[in-house]
Write a structure and sequence with these properties.
Number of strands: 5
CATH architecture: 3-Layer(aba) Sandwich
Strand content: 5-15%
Shape: globular
CATH superfamily: Response regulator
CATH topology: Rossmann fold
Helix content: 25-40%
Strand order of the largest sheet: 2-1-3-4-5
CATH class: Alpha Beta
C-alpha cells in the first residue's frame, strides 16, 4: 500500500479550484493535494518537469481532471496518461461541468475511471468531492507497486508523444 497518498487536481477555474481544495482538505486524508491550473501543468507534475522536478516518484492516488482547460485540455491529459505505461494505472476521475454525451462517451473510451458532473449547489459540490475522495483515497486499494514500475517517468522522452488511440464507435 502507498504510504504517501495525494491527489492531483487539474482545474483552471479559480472558484472551482478553491472550493475543490477546501472540500478535499476536510478530514485527514489525503496527505497532500496538488493543484495544476491547466493540463500542461498537470502533465509537468506527473512527469516531474519544471516546477515539479523535485517531486518524489510516488504517483497520485487519483487525478481529478477538468475537461475544458487552456493550453492542454483534459482530453489530451487523459490520452497521455492512459497511453503511458508508467501512468496508465493511475485512476482518472473526470470532474467537469460538461453534461455533453460526446464528452462522457469519449472519456470512457479513452480509459477514464469515472465521470462526475460538477453539481451547481455548494453542499452538493462538497458532498460529491467527499464521496470521490472517500472512494479513491480511503476505500480503494491502489494498484500494486509492480504495476507502477513498468516504466520510470524520469526516463521518458518528453519529445516523443504517444500515438493517438483509435476509438471505436459506441452504440448506446
Amino acid at each position: 500500500m502507498n504510504t504517501h497518498r495525494w491527489i492531483l487536481v487539474a482545474e483552471d477555474n479559480p472558484n472551482d479550484a478553491d472550493l475543490t481544495l477546501r472540500a478535499l482538505s476536510a478530514d485527514k486524508a489525503p496527505d497532500e493535494i496538488v493543484l495544476a491550473i491547466d493540463g500542461a501543468e498537470a502533465l509537468d507534475c506527473l512527469y516531474r518537469r519544471g516546477a515539479f522536478k523535485k517531486r518524489d516518484g510516488e504517483p497520485p492516488a487519483v487525478i481529478l481532471l477538468d475537461l475544458k482547460m487552456p493550453r492542454v485540455d483534459g482530453l489530451e491529459v487523459l490520452r497521455q496518461v492512459k497511453n503511458d505505461a508508467a501512468l496508465k494505472n493511475i485512476p482518472v476521475v473526470i470532474f467537469t461541468s460538461s453534461k455533453e454525451r460526446a464528452d462522457l462517451m469519449r472519456t470512457y473510451q479513452m480509459g477514464a475511471n469515472a465521470y462526475v458532473v460538477k453539481p451547481l449547489g455548494y453542499q452538493e459540490f462538497v458532498a460529491a468531492l467527499r464521496d470521490v475522495k472517500k472512494f479513491w483515497v480511503v476505500l480503494n486499494e491502489p494498484p500494486p507497486p509492480e504495476l507502477l514500475r513498468n516504466a520510470d517517468v524520469t526516463t521518458l522522452r518528453p519529445d516523443v508523444q504517444p500515438s493517438q488511440p483509435q476509438l471505436a464507435p459506441v452504440a448506446w
